[in-house]
Design a protein that fits this description.
single chain; about 190 residues; alpha/beta; seven-stranded mixed sheet; 6 helices; 7 strands; about 20% strand; FMN_Rdtase-like_dom; Flavodoxin family protein; Flavodoxin/NO_synth
């Protein structure tokens, strides 16, 4: 059985989301995937082909003004030709985002990704972690410290560069990459068995 192909289709305005994309990739590779980073604002025809042959696509964007960035929305609209043929139907999908505020309406960005995936007939993979940092004995260094379920959510202070991305958020993104890859392996085994 060949390794699942996972692509991380993302936009990063200031480098914070790129750090998370790298973490998703690292988690996916650790779980045995062939993983590709694709900057959606610089996407090439070759990279569209990689997305088309991927078993899973993980969407990533900063949350700006309560939704994914404009560059990611442009990419989302550009997938309409794949939507028309349901070319991505049956693939796995997941998502991650970052904003300057603890909440920052990140859930709306993750729901945008979920809707995009649903329109393509994709299967959404959630984060699969209980919330961290929610008791007096918990720590901001817990995985899923912000308590999101739909995907990986991160918070970086607006006066810090990419080096300021919280280590717990990086670890949470790595977890997402592993989880999506493990789910892809499960789907592949199921197809073989069927």
């Amino acid at each position: 059985m060949t390794a699942p192909v996972l692509s991380i289709a993302y936009h990063s305005g200031y480098g914070h989301t790129a750090v998370l994309a790298e973490a998703v990739r690292a988690g996916a590779v650790a779980a045995g995937a062939e993983a590709h980073l694709i900057k959606v604002d610089e996407i090439t025809e070759e990279q569209w082909g990689i997305l088309d042959r991927s078993d899973a696509i993980v969407f990533g964007s900063p949350t700006y003004m309560g939704t994914a960035s404009g560059a990611f929305h442009v990419f989302g609209e550009a997938t309409s030709s794949r939507w028309a043929g349901q070319d991505w139907s049956g693939k796995l999908a997941a998502g991650f985002t970052n904003s300057g505020a603890k909440s920052g309406d990140k859930l709306h960005t993750l729901q945008f990704f979920q809707t995009l995936a649903a329109q393509h007939g994709m299967h959404w993979v959630n984060l699969g972690l209980l919330p961290g940092w929610n008791s007096s004995t918990a720590s901001e260094n817990d995985l899923n410290r912000l308590g999101f379920f739909a995907g990986a959510a991160a918070q970086t202070d607006t006066d810090q560069g990419p080096e300021g991305v919280h280590k717990a958020d990086i670890a949470t993104a790595e977890h997402l990459g592993r989880r999506v890859t493990e789910t892809a392996w499960t789907f592949a085994r199921g197809r073989v068995a069927a």
